[in-house]
Amino acid sequence: MEQTVLNLPSETTGDRHPAPFVMVIFGAAGDLSHRKLFPALYNLVVDQWLPEEVAVVGVARQKNDSASFRASITQSVRKFSRRPVDEAVWSKFEANVHYVEGDFGKPEVYDRLKDALEMVEKEMPAATNRLYYLATPPSFYPVIAEQLGRVGLNNPRDPAAWVRIVVEKPFGRDLDSAKALNQDLHQVFGENQIFRIDHYLGKETVQNILVFRFANGIFEPLWNRRYIDHVQITVAESLGIEGRGHYYDHAGAIRDMIQNHMMQLLCLIAMEPPVVNEADSVRDEKVKVLRAIHPLSTREVAENTVRAQYEGGTAEGKAVVGYLDEPDVPSDSRTETFVALRLFIDNWRWAGVPFFLRTGKHLGKRVTEIVIQFKGVPHPFFRQSGSELEANQLILKIQPDEGISLRFGAKVPGNQMRVRTVNMNFLYNTSFDDAAPEAYERLLLDAMFGDSTLFTRKDEVETAWALVSSILQVWDRGRGPIPTYAAGSWGPKEADALIARDGFEWRLP
Fold first, then answer.
1. Distances from the Cα of 215 to the Cα of 220, 261, 431, angstroms
2. Are 349 and 364 in contact (CB under 8 A)?
3. Residue pLDDT tens, the chain, 509 long
4. Within 13 Å of residue 249, how many CA atoms lie on the same side as its CB?
5. Separation CA 327–CA 352 (nearest Å)
6. Which element (helix H / strand E) includes 464?
7. Please, are residues 138 and 251 in contact by the beta-carbon 8 Å criterion?
8. Which residues participate in catalysis according to the annotation?
9. 115-149: string of b/e by CB count within 10 Å (b at 16+)?
10. Sign of CA dihedral 392, 394, 399, 400
């Protein structure tokens, strides 16, 4: 069997290693660093993706020294790594982990960071490259970037080396703040140095959308308005806001999920084939999709969007309170925990095909999937047999049961002509021997290689925000009651009515 070989960028020191580097993690004592970043780094070491000369400098406000910080991340790696910890491998790696204590807003912290990096460079002369990771609240992004520029850490001392900065979502909270953030970052870093990370794009099944579409000749000829009836994208969470009332009430479902994760999924489904498999070529096509989404007028926002809040109910077998009764949520909050959208893409391929998006907290099941529903046959040939055939569906399952399912009609065994809808399933965990890496492993490695394909570009972020901001502006002017849904259900009846107007219904995962 032939295998596709990944051609890695030229900034490598071998077939599969990025050049030696130092990774600086701002917010190194936080949950993201301990649950995701350090376990991802360890797994990359175990899989022999990282070079011999690699060091990590953690920066955080907690009182710590390098020794106690190493002890804390050791516990986290043991708990959250997808691989058992090899003591010899980990001991060698953690010896090159250092810690700088201080408030991100104080200039002296960056002076101490510069000293720490110079110390590391003396120990590892080849590690002249820098990867900064901002695992902090977004309010610190401009501050950190400005201070790195002040002490000259935004550019490498060696002209042949590189400096990159990884920024976590959210990238702003509306179009204006996203533009301001991009402007602040560009004061210090070039666009080719900025890696805006969305962990959804690191998931194997999300990456497989491009492979499925552009490496197989069977479906691409059908991937258009002539054969596809509509598209559903569902990102459902069974959990609620989990004690994050203060954060969530300032974000809501449309900022938390639609603007980033779900717009990325829509782009991968709807984009044209890139000219070449390179970062800017792929991202150019994604931006074209975002620009082609039909802008919603005030009337169209009312007709094509649904927002709602969960009420008390039963989720995952436990009684839960409603959103307005959650800690740190104002009793008169109008923040949505559920969103459903009906969008159209005004281009040659997708004209007239509705794209339905829905996401919410405390829904019936944790699931992310994309449903491509094809148009029916032109003549109901088997109607006389009493068969009620469902439409053909292609279901791309992102999580938790990663795979692809195709629903089509087949004859039921027997002497009568009876037709029934059946499933043809592909499952990742039964088809491949190797366990899929965590999303952060892939994305960190791409940042080390300088491959920005799976990272969002400035114009991509701002174009997505333009659509979402237009919806938010209309919602903010509204004063009517917000629909509700019972926790553990699949959302409000208004979302069912939204898709029913076109003669469809949501697929029940």
1. 9, 23, 18
2. no
3. 333 333 334 344 445 789 999 999 999 999 999 999 999 999 999 999 999 899 999 999 998 889 999 999 999 999 999 989 999 999 999 999 999 999 999 999 999 999 999 999 999 998 899 999 999 999 999 999 999 999 999 998 888 899 999 999 889 999 999 999 999 999 999 999 999 999 888 888 888 899 899 999 898 899 999 999 999 999 999 999 888 888 899 999 999 999 999 999 999 999 999 998 899 999 999 999 999 999 999 999 999 999 999 999 988 888 999 999 999 999 999 999 999 999 999 999 999 999 999 999 999 999 999 999 999 777 666 665 555 677 889 999 998 888 899 887 777 777 777 777 778 888 877 777 666 788 999 999 999 999 999 999 999 999 999 999 999 999 999 878 899 999 999 999 999 999 999 999 999 88
4. 16
5. 43
6. helix 458-477
7. no
8. 261
9. ebbeebbeebebbbbbbbbbbbebebbbbbbbbbe
10. positive
The model's pTM: 0.91
Angle at 211 between CA 209 and CA 215, to 5 degrees: 135
Matching residue, tokens 């602040």: 184
Q: Rounded distance, CA 71 to CA 40, Å?
A: 17
In contact, 27 and 33? CB cutoff 8 Å: yes
- Identity at 48, one-letter amino acid code: Q
Sign of CA dihedral 182, 188, 191, 193: negative
